[in-house]
Give the backbone structure.
Amino acid sequence: MKAAVLICLSIFCLSIHAKGQGTVGPSLTSLRLREYCRFVGTDQAKLSDEEYDHSHICLFYVSGVLDGFQIGDSATKLCVPGSASLGELALVVSKYLDQHPEKLHNQPQYLVIDALHTAFPCDPDPPKK
């Protein structure tokens, strides 16, 4: 089920990107993701159609990266609260991208994980007695 949702979201993101670009261009950069994520959390009624599309690209990208990360095998662990909404997670990513411009040369998927890991680290195992 997750795979089907991820595929649908990816196709949707690509179609939005293609609509604005004329053709699907190079993969999403961290700089572009930061631009898109700036519209997350803004009243949708105040956004232009393009800004609305950009906010959703950010939301779907964060969702896809998180879903892919959770089914993968990584030494990095995320402890995202189950009550956190996708919008809240995208706001965390947006804030991280704004606060760390020196990292924008890195691939965006790594920065999404860095942002979520920074905001939601897992508690270390308690010391054994």
Observations:
- The two ends are 43 Å apart (CA to CA).
